[in-house]
Amino acid sequence: MSTQRPLRVAVVGAGPAGIYASDTLSKADLSATGFEGVSIDLIERLPAPFGLVRYGVAPDHPRIKQIIVALEKVLGRGDIRLLTNVDFGTDVTLEELRRHYDAVVFSTGSIKDAALAIPGVDLPESHGAADFVSWYDGHPDYPREWPLEASTVAVLGAGNVALDVARMLAKHADDLLPTEIPDNVYRGLKASKVTDVHVFARRGPAQVKFSPLELRELGHVPDVDVLVDPEDFEFDEGSMAAIDSSNQTKQVVKTLTDWTLKEGDGTASRRIHLHFLHAPVEVVGTDGHVSALRTERTRLRGDGTVEGTGDLHTWDVQAVYRAVGYFGSPLPGVPFDELKGVISNHEGRVLTPEGETVPGVYCTGWIKRGPVGLIGHTKSDASETVRHLVSDAASFAPAPEPDPEAVLETLRGKGVEVLTWSDWEVLDAYERALGAPHGRQRVKVVSREEMVKFSREVIAEAEAETEAKAEARADAAARAAGDGA
Question: Is 8 left (phi over 0), alpha (psi -120 to 50) or beta?
Fold first, then answer.
């Protein structure tokens, strides 16, 4: 196929995966495709871009949030058009996207909590970690309030999300004030009654997925003791092999071992207890509310895996947080693997249930490979997906309405209030201005309505001011011309 226009591509999801894919595609060699260059629209259902970095990283981790600086440079170049506040499936369908684009790439991530099939998991005080993270990060689609009446809570999981949840629950709210924490979250955490947070991992210290830096940070939270029971320490041949082969595992085990030898001085008002070799078997309820967590002691099998011992323990807690992983959500009209929680695909090419390639439809990031790996891993995902897209481009059926304005007409015709990069710049400046008097980088605007309203009002005011100045200059020029005559 040969055409005198750019390749039109829609990337759905403006988190790191979508931005990396867009950036990679913008630099791709399309000389053999029959297209002249590429035109990319990055479509996001929220009013703000950056996905997991904005709404999945704890506010007291500004180092990780600095990834936004690199992502901003990509979007600020102007060669990738950002269209936010557009919900795929509601505001626009795959069929409509295929009318306006030659190819579509999905990068919608994984935002739901993975299921945990134990009795009592549906009790009202049993929470998914993803929901809690979305609350404390000010996600606009989540309630402004969070129940924090429990004094003793359990966190289930052995990854960085479990550490984030435990730290945010135990940390004093005033210590979060220098961060971008939303005001409603500060007020909620300030009123929290928590004194003890118990983190449970079903395997041993050498099998946890904590990163060394995240774990060490836990030991520096003001007025919070970290307690580790030496009886929870066990190492088998698989554990020793993991320690010998991974410097990261070695650092994690050393930090945990040091904590077993260090007793808290008893002055801290809050405590984080780390438990290993305990598998949750039941969230115990009394009168319809969480009253305890029941775990089974496990033992290592020799290869790093565990088996139950039948030894049950009951822990008095009033709330449970499940940090056992994320899970992808199906998208209307897009083949989905219900078991894996990803779009059905092979190396980013979307597949039908029969295993055939869906022409012109691709995926990248967690919705492609599952919620594993760090943010940086999405770069290699993007490269693989874009490589296949470019190699397939010559065979694409051309989009019937590829004009960049056509998709905007479709959306606006449905009453969708589409926001762009300039709208985000306005909101970004406003959030930073809210934080500046308090020495904070920003204070997040949480409500979707406020995010949209503020962005559009400021843009409208600026446009009106520009128009008024232009009219004034025109009047002055006309008067000057009249005087000269």
Answer: beta
Close Cβ partners of 281 (under 8 Å, ≥ 6 residues apart): 118, 119, 294, 295, 296, 312
Set out the domains of the chain in order of their start, with CATH numbers.
Answer: 7-111+328-415 (3.40.50.720), 112-326 (3.50.50.60)
> Could you tell me the pLDDT band of residue 476, with boundaries at 50, 70 and 90?
low
- Which residues make Cβ contacts (< 8 Å) with residue 386, sequence separation at least 6? 21, 24, 25, 28, 364
pLDDT digits (tens, 9 = 90+) for 347-373: 999 999 999 999 999 999 999 999 886
- Find out whether 82 and 42 touch, Cβ atoms under 8 Å: yes
* Three-state secondary structure readout of the chain: CCCCCCEEEEEECCCHHHHHHHHHHHCCCCCCCCCCCEEEEEECCCCCCCHHHHHCCCCCCHHHHCHHHHHHHHHHCCCEEEEECCCECCCECHHHHHHHCCEEEECCCCCEECCCCCCCCCCCCEEEHHHHHHHHCCCCCCCCCCCCCCCEEEEECCCHHHHHHHHHHHCCHHHHCCCCCCHHHHHHHHCCCCCEEEEECCCCCCCCCCCHHHHHHHCCCCCEEEEECHHHCCCCHHHHHHHHHCHHHHHHHHHHHHHHCCCCCCCCCEEEEEECCEEEEEEEEECCEEEEEEEEEEEECCCCCEEEEEEEEEECCCEEEECCCEECCCCCCCCEECCCCEECEECCEEECCCCCEEEEEEECCHHHHCCCCCHHHHHHHHHHHHHHHHHHHHHCCCCCCCCHHHHHHHHHHCCCCCECHHHHHHHHHHHHHHHHHHCCCCCCCCCHHHHHHHHHHHHHHHHHHHHHHHHHHHHHHHHHHHHHC
d(CA 15, CA 139): 14
Provide the pLDDT confidence category of residue 63 given band limits of 50, 70 and 90. Answer: confident
